[in-house]
């Protein structure tokens, strides 16, 4: 059974006189433990698709199952609990709370869930050890680097050990060194913790860390590539596919030189 099962999903925004079809009948499956990228031109429907899989947005029609559970039409209250317990999220702009320390930001999901201090402390230690954040726990977000900010956001996303981690342009605000670091940590999370990762990106270097990439165009799946050889070879495949798909690829983006 796939961990994520998307069946003929459509998403239409707007009202009768101005309808926008963001997703036009996508079906896909993501297996447990996969590291999947979603790419495609600007406006292709990537974020809409990710948000529907992440239960942040609802399909207009179609069905989405996560671990066999149909999440398509669950109530908002049930979905909020499901997200808190089963899913992790990383966004381009980190979404850290400026008034909280790094430590408080990372443990926030567990504090909100009302877990006991020793349980929180144990989870915190594991997370900060994995992400190399031990030395900066007492600092505030405006006292750390951009790359550290995204690692803190990553820590907050995985502290509840979600089976699924969704990331929307996680390297979009990072320089190439910080991006590389984050991508190595995401690889570790995928390989060591077995966390399934689904990531949206415009960037070929970022995508080259995935094991499989779905290319979306005009709200539909255009093609798919699977990494078989080296990451460098996969990077070239991504660039080639971006050239084929056209419109909005980032083949000359800031990270292409670091390959
Ligand atoms: N809330 C909304 N209301 C109306 N239209 C929307 C909304 N969200 C997205 N759209 C439209 O749906 C289409 C797909 O948007 P989406 O953000 O999913 O694309 P994307 O591939 O993630 O684009 P980008 O790479 O530029 O972020 C676009 O035409 C967009 O303008």
Give the helices and strands, then pairings:
Blueprint: E1 4-15, E2 18-30, E3 35-39, H1 46-53, E4 61-66, E5 69-70, H2 76-86, E6 87-91, H3 102-112, H4 117-131, H5 146-158, E7 164-168, H6 176-192, E8 196-200, H7 204-207, E9 212-217, E10 220-226, H8 231-245
Parallel strand pairs: 3-8, 3-9, 6-7, 7-8
Antiparallel strand pairs: 1-2, 1-4, 4-5, 9-10
Helix pairs in contact: 3-4, 3-5, 4-5, 5-6
Bound molecules: adenosine-5'-triphosphate.
Adenosine-5'-triphosphate is lined by residues 13-14, 20, 22, 40, 42-48.
Detailed description of the structure:
There is one protein chain. The chain is an alpha/beta fold and 259 residues long. It has eight helices and ten strands. The protein has a single domain, classed as P-loop containing nucleotide triphosphate hydrolases (Rossmann fold, 3-Layer(aba) Sandwich). It has helices at 46-53, 76-86, 102-112, 117-131, 146-158, 176-192, 204-207, 231-245; strands at residues 4-15, 18-30, 35-39, 61-66, 69-70, 87-91, 164-168, 196-200, 212-217, 220-226. The strands form two sheets. Strands 6-7-8-3-9-10 form a six-stranded mixed sheet, with helices on both faces. A four-stranded antiparallel sheet has the order 2-1-4-5, covered by helices on one side. The chain is globular and about 50 Å long. Residues 248-259 have low confidence and may be disordered. Residues 13-14, 20, 22, 40, 42-48 line the site of adenosine-5'-triphosphate. It comes from Loigolactobacillus jiayinensis.
């Amino acid at each position: 059974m796939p961990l994520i099962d998307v069946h003929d999903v459509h998403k239409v925004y707007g009202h009768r006189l101005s309808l926008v079809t963001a997703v036009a009948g996508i079906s896909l499956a993501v297996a447990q433990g996969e590291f999947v990228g979603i790419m495609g031109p600007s406006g292709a429907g990537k974020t809409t698709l990710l948000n529907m899989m992440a239960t942040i947005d609802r399909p207009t029609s179609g069905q989405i199952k996560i671990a066999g559970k149909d999440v398509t039409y669950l109530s908002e209250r049930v979905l909020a609990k499901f997200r808190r317990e089963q899913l992790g999220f990383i966004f381009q702009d980190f979404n850290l709370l400026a008034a909280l320390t790094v430590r408080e930001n990372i443990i926030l999901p567990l504090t909100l869930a009302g877990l006991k201090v020793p349980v929180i402390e144990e989870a915190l230690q594991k997370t900060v050890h994995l992400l190399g954040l031990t030395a900066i726990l007492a600092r505030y977000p405006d006292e750390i680097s951009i790359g550290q900010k995204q690692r803190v956001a990553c820590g907050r996303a995985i502290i509840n050990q979600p089976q699924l981690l969704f990331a929307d342009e996680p390297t979009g605000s990072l320089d190439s060194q910080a991006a590389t670091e984050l991508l190595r940590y995401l690889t570790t999370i995928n390989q060591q913790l077995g966390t399934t990762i689904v990531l949206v990106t415009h960037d070929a270097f970022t995508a080259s860390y995935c094991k499989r990439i779905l290319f979306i165009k005009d709200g539909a799946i255009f093609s798919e590539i699977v990494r078989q050889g080296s990451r460098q070879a996969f990077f070239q495949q991504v660039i080639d596919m971006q050239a084929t798909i056209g419109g909005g690829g980032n083949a000359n983006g800031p990270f292409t030189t670091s390959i």
